[in-house]
Structures are given as C-alpha cells and as structure tokens.
Amino acid sequence: MNHLEQYIRDRKSLFEEEPAPGHFERLQQKMNRQSRRTIALRWGLSIAASIAILFSVGVIIRQHPVKQDTMLAGCENAADMKDCYMNKMNVVAGQIEILSQGLNSWDRQQVMTDVQNIIDTAAGGFESELPEELPAKEAHLILSDYYRQNLESLEMIVKELEIIN
User: Can you list the alpha helix ranges (DSSP code H) found in the chain?
Assistant: First the structure.
C-alpha cells in the first residue's frame, strides 16, 4: 500500500490542475456519439430479433399446423371476426406478460415489444388492403387465416416461454 500512496503523493499536483478549455464539451460530444451508437445498435438488434421470431414462428407453424377447427370455431362465425381474434390475442398477450416475468429485463422488453408488434400489425387495416373485387367469401377466408396466424404466433411465444419456465 505504501507504493500506491507514494505514487498518489508524487502526482497530487496533477489531480489539482484544471482541465484544458473545452475539455468538458469534447467529453460531452463523445458521450453523445456513444449513446447514439448504442441506441442504433439496440434498435437494430430489436428489429433483427423481431424478424427472427416471426420467421421462426412461420417455419414452426408450417411444420406443425394447428387444427383449424379448434381455432376457427370461436371466431370464424362471430359477428365481428376481427374483434373476436383481437380479444383472443389480448388474452394470450396477458399470458405472455405473466410468463415473461421470469426473464431478465432486456429479454422481457424484447418479448413484450414483439407481442405488441404482432397485435398492432393484426389491428392495422389489413382488410382495407384486400381488393374490392374479391368475393366476400374469399376475403373472409383470407382475413380469418391472417388473424389466426397472428394468434398462433402469440401462442407459439407462450409455448416457448412455458418451456423456458
């Protein structure tokens, strides 16, 4: 410990000097640049993770198709099919929120962001993008398939979280 104390005493005058003019401004600029890089990196990783999850869910769904009868029975004939599916998605999102509490904060935030993205995408105006000349029955089938796939994506997240827990 004497060597360290002697080193500090010998250089005490260096610690008492004021930094060069503009030092704090340059330091602040460097800190701002680093934080922008960190934010850009986090956004990039978030987007990449979201795409990877959606792609994985799509591959898994194609390998293990869910029986349509069980999923469609509740919402297929509902007066407002979209509303029915959105309610089911919100219920599943609640399950995900509960199951994700065991994850670290970063992973939990990523999962909940992905869940919210799926719900927001499903709630968006997909039905308005369908061609008007499309027969009503075909439009109904396309929409039910679209909402069902979004619901299945959320259910796959639940299954993965159940495995993790």
Answer: 2-10, 12-16, 23-63, 68-75, 81-99, 105-123, 136-164
Kindly tell me the burial class for residue 58, based on how many C-beta atoms sit within 10 Å of its own C-beta (0-12, 13-18, 19 or more): middle
pLDDT tens across 107-149, in order?
Answer: 889 989 999 999 998 888 888 888 888 888 888 888 888 899 9
Residue type, 41: L
Decide if 40 is inside a domain: yes
Q: Is residue 18 part of a domain?
A: no
Mean pLDDT value of segment 11-39: 78
Q: Are 144 and 72 in contact (CB under 8 A)?
A: yes
Domain that holds residue 134: 23-164
Q: Is residue 3 part of a domain?
A: no
Q: What distance in Å separates the CA atoms of residue 41 and residue 1, rounded to the nearest whole number?
A: 42
